[in-house]
Amino acid sequence: MKRMKILSLGLISLWLMALTLTACGGSPPTSQEAAPATDTQTSTPAKGLKDVKVVLDWTPNTNHTGLYVAKDKGFYEKAGLNVQIVQPGSGGADQMVASNAAPFGISYQEGVTQARTQGVPLVSIAAVIQHNTSGFAAPVDRGIKSPKDFEGKKYGGWGSPVEEAVMKSIMDSDKGDVSKVKIINMGNADYFTAVKRDIDFAWIFYAWTGIEAQLRGEPLDMLYVKDYSKSLDYYTPVIVSNEQTIKNDPELVKAFMDATAQGYEYTIAHPEEAADILSKAVPELDKKLVLASQKWLSPRYQDDAAQWGVQKPEVWQNYSDWMYERKLLSKPLEVDKAFTNGFLPKR
């Protein structure tokens, strides 16, 4: 399975172009980063249920388990919904949701932030994970124990301005010099292949690639970006909808979120059973990896929040200010329009 990636500003630009071209009747550009739009789970529409699509950000993994649990346990059906979980097309999940090709999708705070400042009507309606579990990872034999140790090393990325900005931010805190890092565009290369062949470190989600490294017996040094700046403790991933759906069908959003919250709450309480549900729904996944990842991730979905899915305005403000100060945004973010907790169930 290809490694999970953080959405880059380069990809955001691609789907913004795709959205514009689609609106103008043209053909959107293709991206090698996104998989074709395909069902990840077959379903037979039940009589009287409303058909709803939710688009994943990448191939199925434990960030998405709550969706599969909500479907398997009948939470969606009880809410009156026949939910189809699909992988993104060439334009990506954000483009599909923003253009209303699907009412719901999985995105990232950085993607929504960039989109909102460019007039794209995405709205985050829940945080899947309460704290950022991503960071820079290197095999232990590279000796990368702190950000300053990036100096003289080769970083494998995907060519986005945000990568160097994040790297510079955490290296500055350690008196390091980002200009001394050799940045290589590794594209879709598998992390484990790349670190043996081309690079010393890369940006990963620990819940998947980090856990896989444990199972392979290839220990990592992991530098979580949130540990170096509160501005980098942003929500990744998030569940998104669009302004049109929220305005025209708020009851749909409420029903979807109530059932989805039940799915993630069940996954928090029953990680082993939830892992089995995901593995059965997506049998091509490595069952050992799914189980180990789920055990690590389940307590981190809600973490220290009052309930699963809650988003704090200061998290959105801190990260968008960080982006704007580094000229990664064309204008400041209107935080109160970027997210809402209004569709989370009352607990």
Automatic annotation (TrEMBL):
Q: Tell me the leader sequence span.
A: 1-23
Q: Which SUPFAM superfamilies match?
A: Periplasmic binding protein-like II (SSF53850)
Please list the residue ranges annotated as the SsuA/THI5-like domain.
61-274
Sorted alphabetically, the keyword list is:
Signal
- Please give one Pfam family short name: NMT1
Region Disordered, as annotated, extends over: 27-46
Q: Which PROSITE patterns match?
A: PROKAR_LIPOPROTEIN (PS51257)
Q: Which Gene3D superfamilies does the entry link to?
A: Periplasmic binding protein-like II (3.40.190.10)
Compositional bias annotation for Polar residues: 28-45
Q: What is this protein called?
A: ABC-type nitrate/sulfonate/bicarbonate transport system substrate-binding protein
Q: What is the protein's species of origin?
A: Paenibacillus peoriae
